[in-house]
């Protein structure tokens, strides 16, 4: 007898009935760039994405919530940068003020604070620099890991004090989760979870983000602290295990599309919630191809996001969030329109 898998693909209803993977706006986390200026500033390398004033960030967050997106993650662009990234942990920093404003306007929305220093340092690295004895040129400088832990802990506490629901350390400093967890607990923020960028690669896909945040390193690169793309699964598991042991409440893989195998490996080894970051370069590639007429943007985006869910992501940080939520709502409306009327409705 011939096996006929096509039987279950014949109609939209049959395909929906047999799907293993769901995708909804509830799975999305929407990133918002917040700057000190009063006006919106479009980001040329990320069509459709802008830097927003605090007022604009509140409206962006409102739009997300109205579309069923329950969470946003905030990235700050200060008007002043220095060697220590002091704007990151200032009580009146741009993210602290934006967090207060969003929570005041939308108390039911989950606000996640990206916890790093790269947007705030004048050299673009994720912590203060220190010299490397015996080295010269670009290799003469590195990020001072343990000094960075002190500043990241200060940043996390100031963000929690401002009302952030989740702290998301992204600097890839050894011991950052433990330092932040200890600082939050000491400041009576035991209830605030840590979303760890546990597995974060030194990726070419971050280019548009660095354009948006003004965080391109002025000396050296981040390869000494972000992960090698060819590092393999063992390194990813080690990084995730260390963060889990230090108190991470969720784990993240960044970027997403080129590392779906890593996402799957973490899903198989950890029972913590898992986040995929659909990063700026992945967003820009789809936008560029769609604008050139090479790809169907809607279908491509939803397929990519479904792939991340299939690989094991419980949540997805994505710049496509608003569009994807609208498309999914349209799909629901379309399916409702195609569904046969119940007998009582038909006779009405």
Give a verbal description of the structure:
- By secondary structure, this protein is of the alpha/beta class.
- The protein has one domain (23-346): Alpha-Beta Barrel (TIM Barrel).
- The protein contains 12 helices and 12 strands.
- Strands 1, 2, 3, 4, 5, 8, 9, 10, 11 and 12 form a 10-stranded mixed beta sheet that branches. A two-stranded antiparallel ribbon has the order 6-7.
- The longest helix is centred in the C-terminal third of the chain and has 18 residues, at 321-338.
- The radius of gyration is 21 Å and the shape is globular.
- The relative contact order is 0.13.
Fold topology:
Blueprint (H helix, E strand, L loop, with lengths): L11 H6 L10 E8 L5 E2 L7 E3 L1 H13 L4 E7 L16 H12 L4 E6 L13 E3 L9 E3 L1 H17 L4 E4 L6 H11 L8 E6 L6 H7 L19 H14 L3 E5 L5 H10 L4 E5 L1 H12 L5 H15 L3 E4 L2 H18 L4 H4 L2
Parallel strand pairs: 1-3, 1-4, 1-12, 4-5, 5-8, 9-10, 10-11, 11-12
Antiparallel strand pairs: 2-3, 6-7
Helix pairs in contact: 2-3, 4-5, 7-8
